Give the backbone structure.
Amino acid sequence: MSKQLATQYTNEFLNLAKQIANEQPERAARYVEICRKIATAFNIRLSKRKREFCKQCNAYLTPKCATYRLLKIRGRTCLFVKCAKCRTIKKIILK
Ligand SMILES: [Zn+2]
């Protein structure tokens, strides 16, 4: 498997997880896990798509299973995402 194909696979697994995240969260978490394993094996950066899942429990984050808070810290807008399953807080700097 080439790196290019692996990148394509990681994107497809995340898209699949997105589609079923609300109905089958367990299965979505499994897809995220597979995606991350491929990314690790092929040294692929998920970059902005890293925001879509919880790094602790691999849950795909949707407004249903996570809480979102917007805060301004030192003039920067930050988005805090709290995973409902393992309560890990993720900080995303927006601007
Ligand atoms: Zn989590």
Remarks:
- The mean pLDDT is 92.
- The first helix runs from residue 3 to 20.
